[in-house]
Design brief:
Blueprint: E1 3-7, H1 16-28, E2 31-38, H2 51-81, E3 87-93, H3 96-103, E4 109-114, H4 123-131, E5 136-140, E6 151-156, H5 160-168, H6 170-173, E7 178-183, H7 201-206, E8 212-214, H8 223-233, E9 238-242, E10 245-248, E11 251-254, H9 256-264, E12 269-272
Parallel strand pairs: 1-2, 1-4, 2-3, 4-5, 6-7, 6-9, 7-8, 9-12
Antiparallel strand pairs: 5-12, 10-11
Helix pairs in contact: 8-9
Length: 273
């Protein structure tokens, strides 16, 4: 991993997700790129909007962009204080999904703080980013701890997505003192071919000098609940998992297991589709 992209919703305070991205980049010796997406400026007056109100809306949008542009130097100083050697800063106008869909092409990993709420829900954004083919770490806003890779849990079901997630996380797994493998049956798309008969995750990691402990998964009502129980029981700092779902025109959604993991994981989760 050479380039870590941090989605910065707030340029006044570096939130837990952005700090996680910075500490991750410092640990890997990677470049940290911060990106803030501001809404497009109003281009016309909605019916019945007084000119004074329209002018105020435009002024507010322009002020947000100005503040975001000025955050460049402050972002660099802050990140270097955490040990990041190289930083970049970008400000874009538009829809976060579209912007990250472009920026993700020149990054190895996107870090997004997972927020769930009526006014600030990032689940749709995470789904779009993952199903566009980007590797992503979702950091829970209320479950953040200092970035650690001492104990990493890998949920592996033999699917292509879980293989891609395992491969993407290899630089982190090589740094971990304990890697816990949680094996389960595939619950992805019914038509997705699995590679469980030809790909051995234990052999793959052993070839890279990573010792693996296979953890029994408690039988729960759902596969996701069993995975999260194993993560908690093994005190994992990070969960690695494949992300299953479908992307159609006007519809983008993760399956039940991936959605549950994203919503309820109390630790950061690295996902790949």
């Amino acid at each position: 991993m050479l380039d870590v992209l941090a989605y910065c919703r707030d340029v006044n305070v570096w939130t837990p997700g952005v700090r996680y991205a910075a500490e991750l980049a410092a640990s890997l010796g990677a470049t940290l790129t911060g990106i803030h997406v501001a809404p497009l400026w109003p281009s016309h007056e909605p019916p019945g909007t007084p000119p004074s109100v329209m002018a105020e809306l435009v002024a507010c949008a322009q002020e947000e962009v100005r503040t975001a542009m000025e955050a460049d130097a402050r972002f660099g100083v802050w990140a270097r204080g955490l040990g990041v050697a190289s930083t970049k800063w970008h400000v874009a106008l538009g829809d976060p999904t579209e912007v990250l869909g472009v920026a993700g092409n020149w990054s190895d990993l996107i870090v997004i703080e997972r927020r769930i709420g009526d006014r600030d829900n990032t689940m749709e954004l995470l789904s779009e980013v993952l199903l566009s083919g980007f590797v992503c770490i979702a950091v829970p806003e209320n479950g953040y701890a200092l970035t650690r890779f001492d104990r990493i849990a890998v949920a592996f079901d033999g699917s292509n997505a879980s293989i891609r997630a395992l491969h993407a996380s290899t630089p982190l797994l090589e740094r971990a003192a304990h890697v816990i493998l949680i094996e389960s049956e595939t619950e992805g798309d019914a038509g997705e071919a699995t590679s469980s008969s030809t790909f051995d995750p234990k052999r793959y990691l052993a070839d890279r000098g990573v010792n693996v402990e296979v953890a029994p998964r408690e039988l729960k009502a759902t596969c996701a609940e069993g995975i999260l129980e194993a993560v908690s029981r093994n005190r994992a700092d990070l969960l690695v998992s494949g992300a299953h779902g479908k992307r159609r025109l006007g519809d983008c959604r993760l399956d039940e297991t991936s959605n549950h993991l994203l919503k309820y994981a109390g630790v950061p989760i690295l996902l790949a589709h």
